[in-house]
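For this section, I looked closely at the sequence of one protein beside the tokens encoding its backbone, which the following lines show:
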Amino acid sequence: MILRTLLAGTLLVSSAAMAQQAITPEPPLEVDAARAELGKRLFYDYRLSGDTSLACASCHLPEKAFTDGLPLSAAYTGAAHFRNTPTLANVGYRDAWMHDGRLGTDLNDTVREMITETYLMNMDMRIMQERLKQDPVYVEMFEAAGMSEPSNGGARNALMDFMKTIQSRNAPYDSGAMSAAALRGQTIFEGKGRCASCHAGPRFTDDRPHNVGVPSNPDIWSDPERHSAFVTYAKFFGVPNYMNLREDLGAYIRTHRDETRRSFLTPTLRELTWTAPYMHNGVFGTLEEVVDFYDAGGGDDPLKDPRLKPLGLVPSEKADLVAFLESLSGDSFDVDAYVWREDDYDYALIEDWRDVPN
């Protein structure tokens, strides 16, 4: 077992060393292997949510590039979310987190919000800490990771290190194995399509918010549980008239400047093959729909980025552009080289603990 190996003093190979076995877009981030392994176990543990109904992995599934395949994600019991679950691929390299970019310090803060927010995992971290202390496996793993006992801060740091090991790997774009269609699509992406003006760098994002006129997802307002979650969020961030609001204001909640309404962070294009549906509210089910949207010059919004104009792509160019976008996805979530593999750990204690009498 991995835990016994850790306790015997033989640490896992660092994620940096393991990542050298594959082609990655950026050098792996430095993490503590024992702490990342602890974070992996926490990531799959339902006890991190208030009523034990959700784990981090409930919405971030490895086989879907750590998304959930839903237009709008699930949420805590009695609620539902009003946004699409973003991929965790390369999340450790980001400068800001969440679709609206409201968290911009470090990944640790993002972990805390996901665990404690009422419509997400709704966990009082004091209770979480006591739950961890009652699990002898966690007691041993925290000690192996250099922490005296299970703690809230230690758990957040472990989850952060685990997520830093989630990195794109072996994409045709990086390995030089792109098809002829993908190579043609790259030329469109960088030229006629003007995609690279926002989708730049190794992660294909500028980490900045833009308004591209994405249409609203009406399910947010027609579903009482989703609407309730949205109202909770908007009220907390001081959005005016939040009870009557029927639009997701995006980055406005950070600035409270009207020109930033309906602006959202540029998403990474890595692992797109696995992360449908697309956009912050999941309104497009396929890459073809996304390409059609941008070919038309984006949506209809008075605050839309002025760089968005109709592109005039012909069908063959659209197909080539989709081929290029697909070349940005690799085997990142179907290999066993990384710390984050779910099936290389014994999760029986996590799965069976509810059967233990009180």
